[in-house]
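Q: Could you predict the 3D structure of Catalase?
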Amino acid sequence: MSDTTNRLTTSWGAPVGDNQNSMTAGSRGPTLIQDVHLLEKLAHFNRERVPERVVHAKGAGAHGYFEVTNDLSKYTKAAFLSEVGKRTPLFVRFSTVAGELGSADTVRDPRGFAVKFYTEEGNYDLVGNNTPVFFIRDAIKFPDFIHTQKRHPQTHLKNPNAVWDFWSLSPESLHQVTILMSDRGIPATYRHMHGFGSHTFKWVNAAGEAVWVKYHFKTEQGIRNLDVELAAKLAGENPDYHTEDLFNAIAQGDFPAWKLCVQIMPLEDADTYRFDPFDVTKVWSQKDYPLIEVGRMVLDRNPDNYFAEVEQATFSPGSFVPGIEASPDKMLQGRLFAYSDAHRYRVGANHNALPINRPKAETNTYQRDGQMRFDGNGGGSVYYEPNSFGGPKQSAEHKTAPFPVSGTAASVAYDHADHYTQAGDLYRLLSEEERARLVRNIVSAMKPVEKDEIKLRQIAHFHKADPEYGRRVAEGLGLPVPRDDG
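A: Sure. Here are the predicted structure tokens for Catalase:
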């Protein structure tokens, strides 16, 4: 019997006799439709690209592990955090936000920071950014915001008019805009940036006691950022610079690592804290809620196949495990639906069955059928619940911890409307050199805006955060400096 280990076959396993010449009627053709190998190759090629992500299209990923270094079981019953020294395998995807799949890595943009923990209780996804805050705080504004970051429907060009018009009409964006336009707006590599869960989440312990929590991944490589001119040069010469750097570092054994810390807030503090703790445009002061070490994340293995692992990886902030739950954060509440729904559209209803997304824990569901159902589809087992045939049942001990809600059903904003204090505090924390670069970056980004009305409206926001901040931007744009009396 001949060796078949290196034999080319069709997708249905039949040996391929000729992979260099299509079947034709005579030497000149035409090509015959009965050449099913040719038809399969062309048809599959046409379908090799799943739709790219609407946001976070360009990214890089790696495998690794998380090791617990501090026992925080008094705050959460999550099994993967239950004991010091425990290791959990994980997969991380870093990304830019606004650009397309072929865009440059070194553009000024937030970076996605998504972690999939393969825990014994199912997958836990922590889907954040390299910034602790975001541009908006209500998911209903997200499609409009992302439209401003994409291309003009007529010119198919990036549109600074839309970007700054939206930001100037959405003052809650000021904190994130200040971070984006600062040195940290262009990280040197994916390895040299912090990561954040950004949102507020809820931890629940074995006794059913809950706290609010925020996540901080602190890079052990140190923070490094790119000079604007160097970033632009790299965008032209090596647009995959960050992707290449991450892959090569891991391949050479220089495994990047982050220390995971959390801030813990008692439930009752949410009613009295000076900022709404569920507003993702705000941070919690570390003086009020100090960082507490949890563990260490290490990336030590590159993907074997980019498409199968990085492109098909699906993350959702709604992928929780017992002991970790959602908060009333309005942006988070919207993302709980939107992310999984995006994956159902982009990859398919059975995306969690793919190897990169499949939990290490056993899964027992009554979900059946759907495109690309490539497992046993439940076989002949019972397919509904409740049932009398011994099918999987709910576990009452894993019910979500209750929390009180009240009020009138209505479309309302957060109570706190202070969009300026934290942005001003950040500006004043910067050195003079960092402030100068921040202002230069903002001026450069705003100069193409056609309407002075938009520029002046945005300058007023900078001025309310800090008068010097507004004055320097105004002077850089050659526009009137706002009056100190507003």
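Q: Anything worth pointing out?
A: The first strand starts at residue 59 and ends at 68.
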